[in-house]
Amino acid sequence: MLTEQCADGLPFHEDADPQRCERVRFAVIKLSGGDLRELKRWIDDANVDWRNVLMDAGFGFDPEAHLDWNP
Question: Which residues are within 8 A (CB) of 30 and not within 5 positions of it... i.e. 6 or more apart?
Fold first, then answer.
């Protein structure tokens, strides 16, 4: 799901490099709490506006915040 539905095809993210995709992917993983249904829901949200997902995960203000997240 992450590689097919949460990648460079996200709206306003078409030219994203792998690091920017990683940030959104970490956010949906964090927010899912390990639940696959929740992961799908957050991926769907990211496909509407991935910036909201970054904010909800706490990754919105720091482009490297996801690197400090430790599951």
Answer: 57, 58, 59, 66, 69, 71
Angstrom distance (rounded) from CA 30 to CA 63: 16
C-alpha dist (Å) from residue 63 to 14, 35, 41, 46 = 18, 25, 23, 16
Cα distances (angstroms) measured from residue 40 to each of 30, 48, 63: 12, 13, 23
Question: Of the candidates 7, 5, 51, 58, which has an alpha carbon nearest to the alpha carbon of residue 30?
Answer: 58
Q: Summarize pLDDT for 14-64 with one digit per residue, the tens.
A: 666 666 788 899 999 999 999 999 999 999 999 999 999 999 999 988 888
Every domain of the chain and the residues it spans: 2-65
